[in-house]
Amino acid sequence: MTALSRRDFLVTTTAAAGLLLSVNLPAAAAPASASASAKGFTPNAFVHIGEDGQVTLTMPYVEMGQGTYTSISMLVAEELEIPLGRVRLEHAPPDEKTYGNPLLAGVQATGGSTSIMASWKPLREAGAVARVLLVMAAAEQWKVAPDTCRAETGEVIHAASGRRASYGALAAAAARLPVPKDVPLKDPKAFKLIGTPAKRLDAGGKVNGTAIFGIDARPAGVKVATLAQSPVFGGRLKGVDDRAARAVKGVRQIVRLDDAVAVVADHMGAALKGLAALEIQWEDGAHGQVSNVQVARELEQATLAAGPVAEQIGDADAALASARTKIDAVYEVPFLAHATMEPMNCTVHVRPDGCDVWVGTQVVARAQAAAAKVTGLPLEKVVLHQHLIGGGFGRRLEVDGVTRATEIAMKVAGPVKVVWTREEDIRQDMYRPYWLDRLSAGLDDKGRPVAWSHRFAGSSVIARWLPPGFVNGLDPDSVDGAVKLAYDLPNKRVEYLRVEPPGIPTAFWRSVGPSHNVFVVEGFMDELATAARQDPVAYRLALLDKTPRAKAVLELAARKAGWGETLPAGAGRGVSLQSVFGSYLALVAEVAVAADKSVKVRRVVAAVDCGMVVNPNTVRAQIESGVNFGITAALYGEITVKDGKVEQSNFDDYQMLRIDEAPSIEVHIMPSSEAPGGMGEPGTSAVVPAVANAVFAATGRRLRKMPIDLSRA
Fold first, then answer.
1. Rounded distance between C-alpha atoms, residue 78 and residue 191, angstroms
2. Which residue from 581, 543, 534, 540 is spatially nearest to 557, judged by alpha carbons?
3. From 7-16, 141-150, 155-164, 702-711, the region with the lowest mean pLDDT
């Protein structure tokens, strides 16, 4: 074995069918050594224990409100036998070899509801290795067998003699020991912390205002900039008259780029006034006539032809031809913006010999690489200071904001904080793709589906973001939620056609592929129940005998929601079921439709089986958050493009769900001994079809296009 301070724990190989990933125990093979910069010992890339007993966790994932800091700390604290409050956090540096996400092909990224799934074993192993080394160090000092000692609340105890030693006192000795292999993990029955409703580690700072987000970064001498970018995607800056802007008090500099102009000032107020005073001329370029109407037409045309097959079971064509009843439908979902509460921002200081970047990003290593590319500096000369994120939703899986800020900083002496206005944030977003779906199903004489055909077209984010993941015209994200359904469908074909919208940038959006596919699948499943003249819940249950976890959550959600109980006129209940992100979630939405055709979601009941639960508070919070995020999309979410420009600009025309519109939400968690699934996104994908199906129950109008607009239903 070679002695390494940090070891590879991700092995990635590419095969014809896609990416094959395996995870190895971090730091399980080499001797540990004391940190050169601090006394104590670092048995692996994640845990450091100082001689003062302080336990520091190098956090491989970022916190953007989803509870990652707390839940992953719980994994380490559980195995290390310390209280959660004893864990101090520091952000992992850009280092994909050490901190890459094994479920995202080794990219150092937080997204796709993968953090707990990816950490469940490696981070527990990291804590267990540290614990075993401390016990071994104590046993060696006391000349006793290690199995006669135990770790407890930050100490090693030898019960027979009454001796005890703190982790801090044992740190130096532990650092000299070889790291053991195949360290056993705790039996879940012995868990003291995992599964408990632990309080959030990041809550205090967010409540008292001491928490530092990217937008709060204030290096000495920092100036503030805001910018205008070409309103047409791919357009260029033709000219700018900046005389009035330069006259604004506090404005220091006007920076021109090929497709943007920025005003650098002493503070944001001056920068905004300066920006408003600019007289800018743009060249629209090749995309000046692009519209979402054009995009929809192209998608519709594309779906008339066959596409690469994502899933094939039996013979759907033959089954359709012989089916007693045939149902066809076309579904459509629009572009969506992320509209995070913390608008895009990045602070950069470029010097001849180096560059510092202060930002909240979901892709630390890619952000560092983006700044290095702009400056021409080697990676090691770019220092990235990671901060809390005020909402990511996939937007900060992109580094365009870092690139833009670095381009501006290259022309400014000293550090500059580039802050996008809300208007710029919405009009220059990278959008959830527009999708169009064609579905056909055949039913037998009992109304049971004997054939299912699903063909859809839209952008592939994976093809751009992770090219090796796009294989044979398919990517796993675009088809997620459309393939491997929980339902027993004997003849099924799913086809996907990649069609990129001209000039319009697309990106991951909270709940990624399932945000589109679950709406379509669950809406169409409701249509089949209606055609069969059967209750939507009972219809689904009859198709779930082979997936008992899915059946159990559906039964629980329906029972807790009072499915079948009478509702007043104008009200309705709708249901959805999904098995995505490694979790099973059933959701019932109750809506009321007013005389003016407005829709209010009054109540949502969710039942989830997400495997073993690390923190039930986090599971509930993520479903509640995802539900409200999804209701926003269901009722209001739509980005439209005309003449190459996004028409929406702020929360007045890209509306968010208001606090008085938020429904009552109940979350019921099913006990499970399975490995954890993801919970950051399922609530978003589940609620949209449940709301649409509830509107149908209330009005008899089937909604196949989002957002909800009963005037066009």
1. 7
2. 540
3. 7-16
Q: Copy the structure tokens of residue 311.
A: 């899933």
Encoded tokens for 409: 């900083």
Flag whether pLDDT at 5 surpasses 80.
Answer: no
Q: Are 66 and 622 in contact (CB under 8 A)?
A: yes
Averaged confidence pLDDT in the chain: 94
Q: How confident is the model at residue 14 (pLDDT cuts 50, 70, 90)?
A: very low
**What is the biggest distance separating any 2 CA atoms in the chain, rounded to whole angstroms?**
83
Q: Dig out the tokens for 235 from the structure.
A: 């357009």
Does the pLDDT at position 38 exceed 70?
no
Containing 466, the helix (H) or strand (E) segment is none
Amino acid at 713: A
Domains and CATH numbers, the chain: 10-206 (3.30.365.10), 214-285+344-419 (3.30.365.10), 292-336+431-699 (3.30.365.10)
Using alpha carbons, list the distances in angstroms from residue 310 to 284, 321, 454, 472.
Answer: 38, 21, 10, 10
Q: Note the pLDDT of residue 2.
A: 30
DSSP secondary structure letter of residue 159: T
C-alpha 260: how far from chain center: 29
C-alpha 713/C-alpha 703 separation (Å) is 6
With a pLDDT cut of 70, the percent of the chain lying above it is 95
**Which pLDDT score is estimated for 39?**
78
- Computed on alpha carbons and rounded to an integer, the radius of gyration of the chain in Å comes to 27
**What's 213's DSSP letter?**
B
